[in-house]
Design goal:
The protein has 111 residues and is an all-alpha fold. The chain is 72% helix and 0% strand. The chain contains 6 helices and no strands.
């Protein structure tokens, strides 16, 4: 089940805690999206560990897009291809990527 969180709260808590809440958010998001979409090409724990390397954000962006689109398709909602945008954002501005992914998760939680 995907939990609804305020995008502003996620971003503010990530900034205030110097990224610690961001790591917690990644952990929760990875597991929620994997459970809901079941389209991840990698174990969620390994995916989280790779966040500490540069490729982790890229892998998260790819898996998040696949899982969100799988949930959208299962619920009869139109799918969106945000993969390239999210990859670029998670490389350059990860906090913006976090906000956009959480916004998509909120849309699914509300549907």
């Amino acid at each position: 089940m995907i939990k609804r969180r305020s995008v502003a709260t996620v971003i503010i808590l990530t900034i205030v805690t110097c990224g610690i809440y961001g790591l917690y958010w990644y952990w929760q998001a990875i597991h929620e999206l994997d459970a809901a979409g079941q389209k991840s090409n990698m174990d969620p724990t390994l995916q989280f560990v790779l966040l500490f390397l540069y490729v982790g954000g890229i892998i998260f962006a790819i898996n998040a897009d696949e899982n969100i689109n799988a949930v959208r398709a299962n619920r009869g909602l139109p799918t969106k291809d945000n993969k390239v945008l999210w990859i670029i954002l998670f490389i350059i501005f990860p906090i913006v990527g976090i906000g956009l992914v959480q916004n998509e998760m909120n849309e699914i939680a509300d549907a």
